[in-house]
Amino acid sequence: xxxxxxxxxxxxxxxxxxxxxxxxxxxxxxxxxxxxxxxxxxxxxxxxxxxxxxxxxxxxxxxxxxxxxxxxxxxxxxxxxxxxxxxxxxxxxxxxxxxxxxxxxxxxxxxx
Length: 112
Hints:
The protein is mainly alpha-helical. The chain has helices at 5-24, 27-46, 53-72, 83-87, 91-108. The protein contains five helices and no strands.
């Protein structure tokens, strides 16, 4: 039984993202990033048949852009989402983004 081409592409992208996390992120950010990536890829693969080709394509393109952004950065500083990107997020995605931003803020607070 062979794995469909699209799933192979997603698995390769997933593996490359986890690899760049190991290479570029500190432990806290890597832990947070890895769990978020795993959750997102797992959710999208489970719902793959329910998603439109456009949704799958956008998912893949945005994670590919994320990977390329991390590869280009010497120092991980991130990149702000553009207004156009925020507008296409659904309510659940906006909620997850907000949770991620809160978690990052907690991780960046100095110890007292």
